[in-house]
Amino acid sequence: MIDISYTVVRKKGITSSISISVSGDKGVVVRAPFWMTRGMINNFVQEKASWIHKNTKRLHQNKTVKQYINGEKHLYFGKEYPLEVIFNSTNSRCKIEIIDERIRVELSEKVPSENISNKIKDALLYWYLEKGIEAITEKVNYFSNKMNVNYQRIDLKKVTTIWGSCSPSNKLSFNRKLVMAPHEVVDYVVIHEVAHLVHRNHGQEFWKMVESYDKEYKTHRKWLKVNHQLLSL
């Protein structure tokens, strides 16, 4: 028997499905029905040991610690841009914009050297959030008009296990890391959640609606599954 550390999350409702996910934030997580015994869960984990090991290894290989320095590559809607750090003589807040195929970060030369990386990181996170809510709102408005539905509000959240959600009160939430994914992948997630304003389940009619707006939705869904570890803020 292989020793594998994992966390169990119990599913509510009547279901017989069990699933496993591997992430850098939460490690190995098993989602199982409330009635399933620990022994049954452990047997399932042992059966998937090879898959768990492969994905854990790939996650560690692809995980890099950002340093927020000149030339470091950062994803923005599926494309990598090198950082260009510029210092000025003012005390104005950090300014970020894309110029000449680079993400230019401009900050005060008075920032202590030991604080520069954190200053750039905080500013970049805020910039991603600002650009993300702008782009996703535009996409939600477009597809909600196409489907003739209304939503209550849009949020971008720091979450690790989901890309989007639709609440009973029609509030749409999205993972802020989506700003790093290609536009067509973001479109799929938006279509998926907006379609939930019509169909509150993952039944046949729901997937027909998703496919009517994204013929390649299976490819885009797979892209997220395979590349999620690259979307690191």
Walkthrough of the structure:
This protein is α/β, with parallel strands linked by helices and 233 residues long. It has 3 domains: 7-62, no CATH class; 73-128, no CATH class; 131-230, Zincin-like (2-Layer Sandwich), CATH 3.30.2010.10. The chain has 6 helices and 10 strands; from the N terminus they run E-E-E-H-H-E-E-E-E-H-E-E-E-H-H-H. The strands form 3 sheets. Strands 4-5-7-6 form a 4-stranded mixed beta sheet, with helices on one face. A 3-stranded mixed beta sheet has the order 1-3-2. Strands 8-10-9 form a 3-stranded mixed beta sheet, covered by helices on one side. A hairpin with a 2-residue loop joins strand 6 and strand 7. Helix 3 packs across helix 4 (183-195), helix 4 packs antiparallel against helix 5 (204-213) and helix 4 crosses helix 6 (217-227). It is globular. The two termini are 36 Å apart.
User: Could you tell me how far the N terminus lies from the C terminus, measured between alpha carbons in angstroms?
Assistant: 36 Å
| Structural class by sheet pairing and helices | alpha/beta
* Sheet with the most strands: spatial strand order: 4-5-7-6
The main sheet comes to: 4 strands, mixed
